[in-house]
Amino acid sequence: NGLLGEVWDDEMSSSMLGTRMKKVVQNYQAMNKYGVELSGPGGVSGTPKLSGPELLCQLKDKVEVATLTPDLQPFSLLPWATQLPPQQLTSDLGPYKSCAVVSSAGSLRYSGLGKEIDSHEAVLRFNAAPTTGYEKDVGSKTTIRLINSQVMASDDHRFLSSSLYSSGVLVAWDPAPFSADLTKWFNRTDYPIFAQYQRYRRLHPLQPFYILHPRFEWQIWQRIQDNMAEPIQKNPPSSGMLGTVLMMSLCEVVHVYEFLPSRRKTELCHYYQRFYDAACTLGAYHPLLYEKNLVKRMNQGSDRDIYTSGRVTLPGFRKLNC
Ligand code: C5P
Fold first, then answer.
1. pLDDT of amino acid 159
2. 238 ligand 1 Cβ < 6 A
């Protein structure tokens, strides 16, 4: 299509990265910090390429959107377990008719997508992404905020005191061992997610706040690896990918904004910061490149939607006939 510029190619591979980024990816491969064990067809070239609908059904079948509850060991043995929500997130929230997942990509700047984003029944945002001052481009509604443990622990994000985090439902996650063993994770989190969770709950006892079960991140990782022709980074998927699958379990239809970059694609890392790095969009630590390949293959919207609005359309799991 001569009138349409380039959109994300679902066969992006690490060979298309620059030398610097290739080295970073190779280093993460060698480290295997989380003890990933390869199984199944993952990374073997010649892996049969599934269709979009087949990928969607795999995701629905093999990924369980689970959160921590007070009955799970080792938490059940600790006095603060009562601070955890008694029910799963998926039984408390939704179903929503339409949802927006707002990536924090720099290409949202000057997008004018705010009204469209806010027209959804529920809106998911990530980490420290603000709306104040950026309403025209990203909207102002926040139903759920997915945060990583690094943001919870870092002084500059002022997690405990900033008003950024005090509205909507909070959902936190931390890169856990591949085994997803809760006791192993509890003894060796990447950042002090549990200490910060307890402090936050004491200050904001009425705000709903869930913690994702580590099985969730690694089940999604496995779906990505099993459907790629080369080995992916042995690190958990990005918040963007986790949030997208989370919303697919709560919504009838999910629109993801600027995860697959539009014509506004830029090296600007976040729409809210003056920091430039191509790794933000292509990934270094996270298998972000491969997450984007998978999302491109599952997209039910048009390439034009991606090109003009950075918009991907995914069906909710409930709407799928597998
Ligand atoms: O950087 P942060 O993790 O807070 O951003 C939220 C998510 O948005 C990322 O996990 C990633 O999936 C997506 N993102 C992106 N391209 C960027 C910045 C963020 O795809 N330039």
1. 96
2. yes
